[in-house]
C-alpha cells in the first residue's frame, strides 16, 4: 500500500510572519491526517516554519535545491542550507522553474542527484503544456522528462522519491484534468517507470496529481488507483482548503 502524500507548494507567497500565522491555523485542522502532509515554503520562511510545525505531523519542504554543494552560484540554495533549516522534502523541476527560469531535464537530473546524495526527499514534477497536449505529444514529452530527468538514478533511490504529474495547462488555471484522464496519464508514467526501473519500483512509487486540486475535486482524484496524492498550489494558501484536501476521506 502506498501512503498518500499531500504537499502544498506555496510558491513565492508568504513572509515568515505570514507563514507562521498560516501554519498555526493549519495545525489543529490536520492533527489526525491520514496522508503524509508536507508544506513547501519560500526559503525565507523555512526557519520560522520549522519552529511553527514542531509538535505536529506537518513536514517541511523547499521549492528547489542547487546541484552543487556550495560555491559561486548566486541566487541558489544548497542542500545543506535547507537541511539546517529543517527541510525534508524538495520540489524539483516545477513547471514554473522550467517555463521562467530555464530549468531543463538535465538540470532537474543534476538537482535530483544532489538532493538524493544529501538525503533530501525529492518531489519531481513532470507534465505537458497545452500545446503539447493539443498536438498529441503528452506521452512523448513525459517519456523524455522521465528518461532524462531520472537518468542514472538507482532503483533503490525511488524509496525516497515522489513524482508529481502536473499538466501545465491545469496549474493555477482552475482547469483540472478529469480524474480518469489524470489516472490514465499517471498510469502511463508508472508503466514507464516499470520498464526502466522495474516492477517493484513502479509498484511502490508515489505519484501525485497537481493542477487546480481543491476540496471539491480532491476526493474524486484521490479515489483513482494510480493517484497517490496531490501537489497543491493555490489551495495550499488557505488553511481550511488545504486541510479539506488533506482530510479528503472524512
Ligand atoms: C502547483 O503549482 O504545483 C499547482 C498545482 O498549482 P495550483 O494548485 O494552483 O494549480
Task: Please tag this protein with its features.
250 residues; alpha/beta; TIM Barrel; eight-stranded parallel barrel; globular; binds phosphoenolpyruvate
Topology, pairings included?
Blueprint: E1 5-9, H1 16-26, E2 36-40, H2 46-52, E3 58-62, H3 79-84, E4 89-92, H4 95-100, H5 105-118, E5 121-126, H6 130-134, H7 138-149, E6 162-165, H8 179-197, H9 199-204, E7 206-210, H10 215-222, E8 229-232, H11 239-246
Parallel strand pairs: 1-2, 1-8, 2-3, 3-4, 4-5, 5-6, 6-7, 7-8
Helix pairs in contact: 1-2, 1-11, 5-7, 7-8, 10-11
The site of phosphoenolpyruvate (PEP) has 13 residues, from strand 8.
Structure description:
The structure is a single chain. This protein is α/β, with parallel strands linked by helices. The chain folds into two domains: 1-51, no CATH class; 89-208 and 221-228, Aldolase class I (TIM Barrel, Alpha-Beta Barrel). 41% of the residues lie in helices and 15% in strands. It has eleven helices and eight strands. It has helices at 16-26, 46-52, 79-84, 95-100, 105-118, 130-134, 138-149, 179-197, 199-204, 215-222, 239-246; strands at residues 5-9, 36-40, 58-62, 89-92, 121-126, 162-165, 206-210, 229-232. Strands 1-2-3-4-5-6-7-8 form an eight-stranded parallel beta barrel, surrounded by six helices. Helix 10 (215-222) links the parallel strand 7 and strand 8 (229-232). Helix 1 (16-26) crosses helix 11, helix 7 packs across helix 8 and helix 10 (215-222) runs parallel beside helix 11 (239-246). The longest helix has 19 residues, at 179-197. The model has no long low-confidence stretch (mean pLDDT 97). It binds phosphoenolpyruvate. Residues 9, 166, 171-172, 210-213, 231-235 line the site of phosphoenolpyruvate (PEP).
